[in-house]
Design brief:
22% helix; Ubiquitin-like (UB roll); alpha+beta
Length: 98
């Protein structure tokens, strides 16, 4: 099981806890994790990735094992600690303002 930590606004929308667990079939990539997350929580479709382009929404960031994966290809395999469930995959809501 892959552990995913959601920001407050997405966990409220999904009516879930801060951390959810999802099963991912095959290679564990950013794309496969988000696909599984959206399958289990259909109300999140379009909130993390654009419906058409499948690109990450601007004010969300992805972190795994202390590294920023936000600008990586969505097909990049995630670290073994994410795959084993030892570490969570983090979806962080960016803060903007001035």
């Amino acid at each position: 099981m892959i552990r995913v930590v959601l920001p407050y606004h997405l966990r409220t929308l999904a009516q879930s806890d801060a951390e959810v667990q999802i099963a991912v079939a095959g290679a564990v990539t950013i794309c496969s994790v988000l696909d599984a997350l959206e399958t289990h929580y259909p109300m999140l479709r379009g909130t993390i990735r654009d419906h058409v382009t499948q690109q990450r929404r601007p004010f969300l960031r992805f972190f795994a094992c202390g590294e920023d994966f936000s600008l990586e290809s969505s097909d990049i395999e995630l670290p073994p600690k994410i795959v084993s469930g030892e570490e969570p995959f983090l979806i962080i809501g960016a803060i903007a303002g001035g």
